[in-house]
């Protein structure tokens, strides 16, 4: 088995937990994923199976889409509902106007710098930040540039959810570049509104071209394997990378590619940019490799050979 599965991750599971369960269900050792999803979060987790695990580098940089509930009233040490409050809850029984919230949201759209949260898997000095945070250590983190394409409220006009503790919930939709932390986005929104904030709910609805409509829960995956198989749900490596340009190889070029030899592509230079990633397919449409094009030498060099 080789390809991509879209798993609808349940709350309480780490991304590693999902990979382990998929390995058990499919009886396949080679299983990986293209981007971590926090344990409390749910939704799209792109899982690679078999030889397709080698394609992670080409899929992990895709943009993401989320639905979230941001709770205004207090911040937590993790930036989400699983953490400890950093201050007493601020009463927000008279919430902000929709225009005030919209102005704050607008200020966080576009290209912005984000400081990674301490409770994240990002490494610094060879150690994951959450490992340092659990030991009570705080370290300086370099901000990273991310792109927030969409950051908008999804409630009806002038409707905010009031909680019994006086906090206010705002439902939002976010479309962002890879590497964006929704928890940090929530905290920054709170700062613009003058109040602590954290993420109370988070659901990833899309990762690149993959969305929830293509997904299976782990329970559904197990049932499918036991009954009628995964033909309708496993995405082939070629389809998973269909956003890349392609070249069709002759039988001899397939052999050369499998041996790792570069190919001369003088007839394709007008459609390929320098360093472009290219799907290298045989005459039946099977993905043989992913190559990188050198515009000066007009050579297409295999980077990852699948077959």
The name of the CATH topology of the largest domain is: Pseudouridine synthase
Treating each run of at least 4 consecutive H or I residues as one helix, how many helices?
A: 8
Q: What oligomeric state do these chains adopt?
A: single chain
Give the mean pLDDT.
89
* CATH architecture type of the largest domain: 2-Layer Sandwich
In brief:
The chain has 307 residues and is of the alpha+beta class.
Structure description:
With 307 residues, the chain is α+β, with helices and mostly antiparallel strands. It folds into 3 domains: 3-62 and 209-238, Pseudouridine synthase (2-Layer Sandwich), CATH 3.30.2350.10; 64-207, 2-Layer Sandwich (Pseudouridine synthase); 244-305, Archaeosine Trna-guanine Transglycosylase, Chain: A, domain 4, CATH 2.30.130.10. It is 21% helix and 31% strand. The protein contains 8 helices and 17 strands. The protein has helices spanning 15-26, 56-59, 98-106, 129-134, 182-193, 218-226, 237-240, 251-258; strands spanning 3-9, 31-33, 42-49, 64-72, 110-114, 123-124, 127-128, 144-153, 161-162, 168-176, 197-207, 210-211, 246-248, 263-264, 277-281, 287-294, 299-305. The strands form 3 sheets. Strands 1, 2, 3, 4, 5, 8, 9, 10, 11 and 12 form a 10-stranded mixed beta sheet that branches. The protein has a 5-stranded mixed beta sheet with strand order 13-15-16-17-14, with helices on one face. Helix 1 packs parallel to helix 6 (218-226). The relative contact order is 0.18. The mean pLDDT is 89.
């Amino acid at each position: 088995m080789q390809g991509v599965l879209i798993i609808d991750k349940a709350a309480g599971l780490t991304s590693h937990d999902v990979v382990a369960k998929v390995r058990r269900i499919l009886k396949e050792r080679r299983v990986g994923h293209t981007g971590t999803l926090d344990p409390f979060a749910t939704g799209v987790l792109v899982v690679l199976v078999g030889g397709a695990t080698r394609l992670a580098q080409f899929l992990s940089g895709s943009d993401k889409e989320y639905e979230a509930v941001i709770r205004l009233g207090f911040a937590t040490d993790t930036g989400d509902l699983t953490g400890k409050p950093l201050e007493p809850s601020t009463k927000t029984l008279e919430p902000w106007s929709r225009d005030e919230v919209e102005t704050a949201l607008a200020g966080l759209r576009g290209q912005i710098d984000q400081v990674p949260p301490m409770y994240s898997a990002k490494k610094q000095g060879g150690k994951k930040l959450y490992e340092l945070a659990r030991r009570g250590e705080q370290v300086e983190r370099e901000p990273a540039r991310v792109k927030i394409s969409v950051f908008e409220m999804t409630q009806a006009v002038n409707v905010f959810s009031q909680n019994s503790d006086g906090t206010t919930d705002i439902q939002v939709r976010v479309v962002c570049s890879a590497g964006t932390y929704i928890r940090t986005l929530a905290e920054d929104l709170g700062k613009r509104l003058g109040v602590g904030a954290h993420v109370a709910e988070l659901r990833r609805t899309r990762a690149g071209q993959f969305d929830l409509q293509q997904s299976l829960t782990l329970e559904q995956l197990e049932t499918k394997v036991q009954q009628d198989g995964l033909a309708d749900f496993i995405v082939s490596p070629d389809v998973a990378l269909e956003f890349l340009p392609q070249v069709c190889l002759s039988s001899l070029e397939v052999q050369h590619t499998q041996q790792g030899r570069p190919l001369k592509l003088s007839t394709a230079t007008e459609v390929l940019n320098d360093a472009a990633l290219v799907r290298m397919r045989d005459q039946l449409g099977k993905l043989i490799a992913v190559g990188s094009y050198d515009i000066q030498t007009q050579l297409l060099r295999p980077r990852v050979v699948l077959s």
